[in-house]
Specification:
Blueprint: E1 6-10, H1 14-24, E2 29-32, H2 49-64, E3 68-77, H3 98-108, E4 116-127, E5 130-142, E6 158-160, H4 172-175, H5 180-195
Parallel strand pairs: 1-2, 1-3
Antiparallel strand pairs: 3-4, 4-5, 5-6
Helix pairs in contact: 1-5
């Protein structure tokens, strides 16, 4: 059996690490950047999810010369002109605070009937100097108030289209069957499978 390729997840978000590990299964030998001794926050100063995703992958690749996979995700609300978008994690300011972000979002949507929104993820894969990105999205709407105990970020107020539950009311397995990160990950896994990407190893 061919030895699995070592893959570092270019994120310091423990919730994302948990989800990505679940989505990848045993396709890779998965490690985190904490194992590399990274003591600073990975920079994300781009103006788009794509830029941030690429920046995070490039930072880890250039500093540690490893195969890695980054993730940048955002919630885009139509009535707010696409906000919070690339600023989703820090919508209510520093430091990052999921509950504060949700509160700000609900205040801004008070009295607005159009609650439509979408979650978007951009994954960027780095291997031996090559970078490839994969995008996934899911349409939905913003609930009137938070519901559920699972998930993180805006999960308590995001109801995926066709469901009457928020992501936070779903188990990790349920969420990972349909969410934006899962859809981007499926594209990534298909790429690895179809291209035989590690055939040179």
């Amino acid at each position: 059996m061919m030895q699995r390729q070592r893959l570092y997840l270019a994120t310091q978000n423990q919730h994302k690490i948990e989800e990505i590990k679940d989505l990848l299964g045993d396709l890779f030998d998965i490690h985190t950047v904490f194992e590399l001794g990274l003591a600073v926050e990975i920079p994300e100063t781009g103006n788009t999810l794509q830029e941030n995703s690429m920046q995070k992958a490039a930072y880890i690749a250039e500093h540690f010369q490893v195969t890695c996979l980054s993730d940048d995700s955002g919630l885009e609300v139509n009535a707010l002109g696409g906000r919070p978008g690339v600023y989703s994690a820090r919508y209510a300011g520093e430091p990052k605070d999921d509950a504060a972000n949700v509160r700000k979002l609900l205040v801004e949507l008070a009295g607005i009937s159009d609650r439509s929104a979408r979650f978007v993820t951009v994954l960027t894969f780095h291997h031996q100097g090559k970078y490839i990105s994969f995008e996934g999205e899911i349409q939905g709407q913003i609930a009137r108030s938070p519901r559920g105990e699972h998930g993180f970020g805006y999960d308590p107020v995001f109801e995926p289209l066709g469901y009457d539950r928020t992501f936070a009311e779903m188990t990790l397995v349920e969420k990972n069957q349909l969410a934006h990160r899962a859809r981007a990950m499926q594209k990534f896994k298909s790429f690895i499978d179809e291209t035989g990407f590690f055939g040179d190893k």
